[in-house]
Each structure stands twice: as C-alpha cells, then as structure tokens.
Design a protein that fits this description.
about 35% helix; 6 strands; 4 helices; globular; alpha/beta; about 140 residues; OB fold (Dihydrolipoamide Acetyltransferase, E2P); five-stranded mixed barrel
C-alpha cells in the first residue's frame, strides 16, 4: 500500500514539475511582432529591389502607403542621422525614426533582420519609412 502511494506521489510531483517548467519556457517559434498594424505585404529585400528595378511605377503604386515586412541582410548601418538608415542588400534603405534608436543599437552589418515599414515614393529605389525591427536573426 505504501509503495503505491509513493509511486502516485512521485508521478504527481513529476507531472507538476514538467508543467511548471514548460510554462516558463518561451517557444522557439515565437517571433516578436511590431506594435503597429499587420503588414499588407511580406517580401525579401532582394525581391523588392528586383521588382522595383523591373518596373518602378508598378512597384510604387503597389507599395506606396502600405505596411511592408521586409527580410534582408544588413549591408550598412547609419545611426548618425535622423532618420537613421539601415540598408538591406541589395540596396533597400529602411529609414527609422529616433524612437527606434535603442532597438537598432545591436544591429550589425551581415546580420539578417526583418523590418516593418511604410512604403512611400522615391526616385528609382524602394522607399521604406517609419520602420521598426520585427526581429533580428
């Protein structure tokens, strides 16, 4: 009788321990989301650049005024101005407002990041303004 009670108690304690530790773990599939609206488009920086070079006017009418999530490799970081600029290869400039300075402090060249920005109009290159970092990989 004591052995059955001991086994039940140990089983219950193990179950409680498993539940408690799993509640404290963050899922590896969780990705930070921006505080703003959901993106209208999700695109790789290389595809956005290719699309813009192929037909600038078509790309401009598609993306202007829309929320765009863009994934790309950082080729340049310029935090000295306002706006701050992170360039994603091959030449997609993401402009960040001053309030994003802290989130940009750890971004390095060569890093892959996902940003969410407002698409705008510019001369022959994708114009991404009011950007936020969604995640950095």
């Amino acid at each position: 009788m004591k052995r059955v009670s001991l086994v039940k108690a140990l089983s219950f304690a193990t179950l409680c321990l498993l539940v408690a530790t799993s509640c404290n773990q963050k899922s590896t599939t969780d990705k930070p989301k921006p505080n703003g609206p959901s993106p209208d488009f999700t695109v790789a920086a290389t595809d956005l650049s290719r699309e813009t070079l192929a037909d600038y006017h078509k790309a401009e009418s598609k993306y202007a005024g829309k929320q765009i999530a863009v994934l790309g490799r950082v080729s340049n970081v310029n935090l000295g101005g306002n706006p701050m600029i992170i360039t994603l290869a091959p030449g997609v400039s993401a402009l960040f407002d001053e309030k994003e300075r802290e989130s940009l402090s750890s971004i390095k060249e060569g890093q892959i990041v996902r940003v969410q920005c407002l698409g705008g109009k510019s001369w022959m290159s994708p114009d991404l303004t009011h950007c936020t970092i969604i995640n950095d990989e």
